[in-house]
Amino acid sequence: MILGLTGGIATGKSTVVSVFRAYGFPIVDGDVIARKIVEPNQAGLQAIVAHFGEGILLPNGHLDRKQLGSIIFADEQKRQQLDALLDPILRQSITAQIHQYHDAPLVIADVPLLFEANYEQFMDKIAVVYVPETVQLERLMNRDTLTKEQAQQRIASQLPIEEKKQRADIVFDNQGSIAQTKENVKSWLEAQKFI
């Protein structure tokens, strides 16, 4: 089974992923892949520089994430342009990595923008890590030391968490303690006979 795992920014996806990892299931991490494709000499970074210019590079040739973030989170059109540049490169890398694990009984595809980028077709089931938006906003402000406005901009750049919850096959509610969330994931794995 290929389980697509998503949620919203600061909903606690990494807590859920840690449970799958602890049981030895392969994780295809969309964020890790997204970071790799924008490293120096990678196709993603070359595409960004060609579009946004050298000003988004640090002196050492790496991507200036803060600079790029300030551009794309303030301008919806620029964010869409960035997504369009990176999407084909990212999609190819994610699907190639999923196929590497074709022998595993369960593969976790951790894709933050699973619904937004139409990855449903590659998944057998989709799980959403859920907290209400008010909790999401508070956690994001605390985690990334953002103002309320900055946190709201980032949350608004994704599909609303309530809509993701509606579209999910499985919902891992992360409003309780970390221990409760981990227990929920373990119970699901047991019910599905993966452990």
TrEMBL record:
Keyword match Transmembrane: no
Protein name: Dephospho-CoA kinase
Catalysed reactions, semicolon-separated: 3'-dephospho-CoA + ATP = ADP + CoA + H(+)
UniProt keywords, alphabetically: ATP-binding, Coenzyme A biosynthesis, Cytoplasm, Kinase, Nucleotide-binding, Transferase
Gene3D superfamilies named among the record's database cross-references: P-loop containing nucleotide triphosphate hydrolases (3.40.50.300)
Annotated pathway: Cofactor biosynthesis; coenzyme A biosynthesis; CoA from (R)-pantothenate: step 5/5
Primary location group: cytoplasm
